[in-house]
């Protein structure tokens, strides 16, 4: 049976798409059965056909080994035993990745005639292994010539090369894109002109995927090279692209898209030049200016007469008392410590040398104009952005569930938060994300009050802790249609890795900003805007504006996008490593302010190791981010599949799918979930393109309330009994996250643990009716007796500053500092009747500070906010131990206002309700 036939009968499930190693293991197991006489040749052929097509897109096992396998399946020469042996070896080499440095893996087991230049594993005797990558060659030459092409390229290898690569030839536009999707080892692409558009294969799932990405067959069949450049840049912007043409290369260089090409060669020019260019391109990404220099610095004999006695480690290693610290961390940590900014070490606060270069390289890698390294976490990055861009009195439209650094940032900057609410997921005691309609509503309210000029920034979390991803492009476009110069701050603390997945990148701040930039330059964008204006008429109703997907005026838009990301949360950076990414056409106007904000918040003793790790994290993502992120996604899909399909585990536990995390009204594409029957990558990509919100597959909400555990309890059980750490919890769930560090063994361990817990629950419930009734009551309490999530109430009039009549922003800073005067504060106990009395009869209660319970982690109260019955009810039902800003012994801290009893809810002028201290 051909692969195409298989695909038509049963579309491949999304979780099979990238599981290359799994498919080899599956083939090995079928081959083993066949060799032992319990399997048949047809099954073996079908499994081999399933693998064969995709393997064309990888250098290993390559043509020779695949031909050897096919040969062993030949009816005349069929040998199940020798087929099984070779498959097992190839499968193991793919899993262990040994083929990258062990040339014997490339042999057919009976040949032994491996070309001498195939894979020299090291640079020279005793030196480190050379990193390995693959180069895609897109060529019009006939397939029969490909082995020659591969060996010609191998002959160019030199012992001086820092890296080693193998070549993967393909013959069409479609095949090139398939290879770019499937082959994570690719680092460069050589594109010869003159190749056809269509693949010779029927690969409906792949084609569907390419269509969903927008790479449909609208490409001119006679001119495929430059369109391929454009498509590859969208799909994998980190790849180095080289164009080989026999036309006038000088003319080509001026064409659109040619600037995405690293170098253009005249086709018959010296091939060694091409080889050297490929190596140099990878070296450009491999370079880590700060880390490289720090390593050199550590080797120099330096006498230090500055603070930081720990530098060079003498006080540590000579000590009888703390030497174990030195032994634990190793000498290099101390040799690489310094408080100097000279000696080539550069200054984070005023970088001009290798930190500046490292930041510029990070900007290139993440698609930003500027990057700033931050060594105090994204908590600090957020405060820097707030301070730099928000002046006292500016209004910031802010998700109330944003991390507390945003709220504190506004207190410090004096900005006024206009809180917008995410949709609640009451049954799981968590919030989703903020519907675009609410954001537009807030902007239109400000417009109607004549105060749109005060709206400075829209500030949202993408993705949320629980994995809700915004339609970032749409949010920005529609907001820009109402206020063309509004600034966006996207807190992507959890989402920095997403840049390295073509699937997720369009939903990142920088990915969406790049798409908008391209649209702004497109010749038909003004037309599209004008057409919509005509259709909307002179004064469209508010409802029309809310219902319409608004198009901004490209002539007026000032695209100003900031992204903060905790590099340490999703990439290989040491804890607290964070970056601020900037794509702001008006950055020059705020650059000085931005530096002031850096000076305000950054430590003057930034940690050298954190800076180095930010540099290295960038290197890693540029060279292997694509494969690492796919692996993290694959791991998540594996966990989701195992939990859903295991009969015992699924009795007690479940992982929420996209349909449970995102209500139907926000899933316009109709996407259900990654593992729903019949769903393929095409559907998932469409959901990413069209839906208002979608779900990051790597963030898994595991419901444990159905097993009788609350989130905190289950988190402790996993940590104490099974050495499994999780982070966030809700009343009835814990959040599992997969990241670039996870392996299949982690999955196996987690599943084994869930199985063990499920087994013990089963056993416990066998004890009798009483136990079963208690269990059912506990599950009911956790799953159904859940507190309503209180929306933000309102700021007391005294803290509404000069807010408009219908807009709810507030002057949080005055309330915050007002509460510093203890004489004008009071406390009221949550238990007891006083608080109920005050809710009924006044005087109104106004929070003196932030009250943030963990979980869920968002502020139930902010300074100046009116306490309502909903707040009190929620707090009374909270069964968490950690509530920041709340002292259980004393109660809620309030600011006393000199107001009449029900004044805080009144809409009278602020001065009548001034706080006592003012
Ligand atoms: C959405 C969000 N933003 C910012 C932060 C703060 O990041 P960091 O821990 O790097 O200071 C967090 C921390 O959990 C977060 O969840």
Largest sheet: 7 strands, mixed
Count of individual beta strands: 23
Measured distance between first and last alpha carbons: 83 Å
As a percent range, the share of helical residues equals 40-55%
Contiguous uncertain segments of 5+ residues? 1-15, 120-127, 899-918
Please state the structural category.
Answer: alpha/beta
Small-molecule binders: pyridoxal-5'-phosphate
What is the residue-averaged pLDDT? 88
Cα-based radius of gyration, to the nearest Å? 30 Å
Strand content: 5-15%
Shape type: globular
Going across the major beta sheet, what is the strand order? 6-15-14-13-11-7-8
Q: Number of DSSP helices?
A: 35
Secondary structure layout plus pairing:
Elements: H1 3-9, H2 20-35, H3 41-55, H4 62-73, H5 80-96, E1 132-138, H6 146-154, E2 164-170, H7 173-182, E3 186-192, H8 204-212, H9 225-235, E4 240-245, H10 249-252, E5 263-266, H11 271-286, H12 289-299, H13 314-317, H14 323-329, H15 331-335, H16 354-366, E6 370-374, H17 377-389, E7 395-399, H18 404-413, E8 416-420, E9 424-425, E10 430-431, H19 436-448, E11 455-461, E12 468-470, H20 472-482, E13 487-491, H21 509-521, H22 525-536, H23 542-547, E14 560-565, H24 567-570, E15 578-584, H25 587-601, H26 608-645, H27 649-652, E16 654-655, H28 658-661, H29 681-690, E17 693-695, E18 699-703, H30 711-722, E19 733-737, H31 744-765, H32 769-783, H33 812-818, E20 825-828, H34 834-841, E21 852-854, H35 869-877, E22 882-884, E23 892-895
Parallel strand pairs: 1-2, 1-3, 3-4, 4-5, 7-8, 7-11, 11-13, 13-14
Antiparallel strand pairs: 6-15, 9-10, 12-17, 14-15, 16-18, 18-19, 20-23, 21-22
Helix pairs in contact: 2-3, 2-5, 3-4, 7-9, 8-29, 12-26, 16-26, 17-18, 17-25, 18-33, 19-20, 20-21, 26-31
The chain binds pyridoxal-5'-phosphate (PLP).
Pyridoxal-5'-phosphate is lined by residues 377-379, 403, 405, 461, 465, 491, 493, 566, 578.
């Amino acid at each position: 049976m051909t692969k195409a036939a298989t695909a038509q009968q049963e579309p491949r499930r999304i979780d099979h798409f990238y599981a290359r190693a799994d498919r080899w293991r599956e083939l090995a197991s079928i081959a083993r059965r066949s060799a032992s006489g319990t399997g048949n040749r047809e099954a073996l052929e079908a499994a081999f056909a399933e693998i064969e097509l995709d393997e064309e897109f990888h250098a290993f096992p390559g043509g020779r080994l695949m031909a050897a396998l096919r040969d062993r399946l030949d009816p005349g020469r069929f040998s199940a035993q020798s087929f099984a042996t070779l498959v097992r070896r190839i499968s193991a080499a793919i899993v262990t990745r040994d083929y990258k440095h062990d040339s014997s893996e490339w042999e057919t087991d009976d040949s032994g005639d491996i070309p001498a230049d195939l894979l020299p594993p090291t640079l020279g005797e005793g030196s480190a292994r050379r990193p390995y990558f693959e180069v895609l060659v897109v060529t019009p030459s006939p397939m029969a010539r490909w082995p020659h092409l591969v060996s010609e390229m191998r002959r160019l290898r030199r012992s001086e090369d820092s890296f080693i690569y193998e070549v993967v030839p393909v013959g069409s536009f479609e095949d090139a894109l398939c290879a770019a999707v499937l082959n994570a080892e690719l680092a460069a692409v050589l594109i010869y002109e003159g190749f056809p558009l269509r693949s010779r294969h029927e690969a409906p799932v792949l084609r569907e995927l390419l269509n969903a990405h927008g790479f449909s067959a609208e490409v001119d069949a006679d001119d495929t090279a430059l369109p391929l450049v454009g498509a590859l840049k969208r799909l994998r912007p980190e790849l180095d692209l080289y164009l080989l043409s026999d036309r006038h290369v000088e003319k080509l260089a001026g064409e659109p898209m040619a600037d995405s090409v690293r170098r253009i060669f005249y086709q018959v020019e010296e091939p060694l030049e091409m080889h050297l260019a490929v190596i140099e391109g990878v070296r450009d990404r491999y370079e880590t200016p700060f880390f490289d220099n720090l390593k050199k610095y550590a080797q120099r004999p330096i006498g230090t007469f500055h603070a930081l006695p720990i530098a060079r480690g003498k006080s540590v290693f000579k000590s009888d008392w703390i030497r174990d610290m030195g032994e634990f961390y190793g000498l290099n940590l101390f040799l690489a410590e310094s408080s100097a900014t000279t000696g080539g070490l550069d200054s984070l606060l005023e970088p001009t040398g290798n930190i500046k270069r490292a930041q510029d390289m990070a900007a290139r890698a993440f698609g930003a104009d500027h990057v700033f390294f931050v060594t105090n976490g994204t908590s600090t990055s957020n405060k820097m952005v707030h301070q730099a861009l928000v002046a006292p009195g500016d209004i910031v439209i802010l998700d109330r569930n944003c991390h507390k650094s945003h709220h504190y940032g506004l207190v410090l900057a004096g900005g006024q938060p206009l809180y917008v609410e995410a949709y609640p997921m009451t049954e799981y005691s968590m919030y989703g994300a903020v519907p675009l309609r609410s954001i537009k509503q807030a902007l239109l309210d400000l417009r109607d009050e004549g105060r749109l000029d005060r709206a400075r920034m829209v500030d949202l979390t993408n993705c949320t802790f629980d994995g809700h991803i915004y339609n970032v492009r749409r949010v920005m476009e529609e907001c820009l249609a109402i206020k063309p110069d509004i600034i966006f701050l996207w807190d992507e603390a959890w989402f920095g890795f997403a840049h390295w997945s073509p699937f997720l990148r369009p939903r990142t701040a920088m990915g969406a900003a790049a798409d908008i930039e391209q649209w702004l330059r497109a010749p038909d964008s003004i037309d599209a805007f004008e057409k919509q204006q005509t259709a909307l008429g002179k004064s469209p109703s508010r409802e029309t504006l809310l219902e319409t997907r608004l198009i901004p005026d490209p002539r007026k838009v000032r695209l100003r996008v900031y992204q903060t990301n905790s590099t340490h949360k999703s990439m290989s950076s040491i804890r607290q490593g964070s970056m601020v990414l900037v794509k702001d056409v008006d950055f020059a106007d705020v650059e000085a302010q931005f530096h002031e904000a850096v000076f305000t918040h950054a430590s003057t003793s930034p940690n050298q190791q954190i800076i180095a790790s930010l540099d290295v994290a960038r290197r890693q993502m540029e060279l292997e981010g694509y494969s690492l992120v796919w692996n993290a996604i694959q791991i998540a899909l594996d966990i989701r599949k195992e939990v859903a399909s295991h009969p015992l585990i699924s009795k007690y536990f479940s992982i929420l799918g996209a349909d449970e995390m995102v209500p139907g009204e926000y899933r316009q594409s109709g996407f259900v979930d990654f593992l729903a029957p019949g769903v393929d990558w095409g559907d998932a990509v469409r959901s990413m393109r069209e839906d208002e919100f979608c779900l990051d597959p790597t963030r898994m909400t595991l419901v444990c309330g159905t097993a009788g555990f609350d989130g905190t309890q289950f988190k402790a059980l996993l940590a104490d009994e099974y050495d499994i750490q999780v982070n966030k919890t809700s009343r009835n769930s814990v959040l599992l996250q997969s990241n670039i560090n996870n392996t299949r063994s982690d999955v196996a361990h987690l599943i084994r643990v869930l199985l063990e817990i499920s087994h013990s629950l089963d056993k416990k419930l066998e004890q009798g009716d009483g136990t079963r009734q208690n269990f059912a009551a506990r599950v009911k309490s956790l799953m159904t007796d859940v507190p309503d999530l209180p929306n933000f109430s309102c700021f007391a009039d005294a803290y509404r500053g000069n807010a408009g009549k219908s807009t709810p922003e507030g002057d949080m800073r005055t309330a915050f500092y007002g509460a510093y005067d203890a004489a004008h504060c009071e406390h009221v106990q949550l238990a007891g009747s006083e608080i109920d009395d005050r809710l009924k009869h006044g005087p109104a209660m106004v929070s003196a500070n932030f009250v943030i319970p963990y979980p869920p982690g968002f502020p139930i109260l902010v300074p100046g906010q009116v306490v309502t019955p909903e707040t009190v009810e929620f707090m009374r039902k909270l069964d968490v131990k950690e509530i920041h800003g709340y002292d259980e012994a004393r109660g809620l801290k309030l600011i006393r206002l000199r107001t009449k009893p029900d004044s805080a809810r009144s809409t009278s002028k602020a001065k009548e309700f001034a706080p006592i201290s003012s």
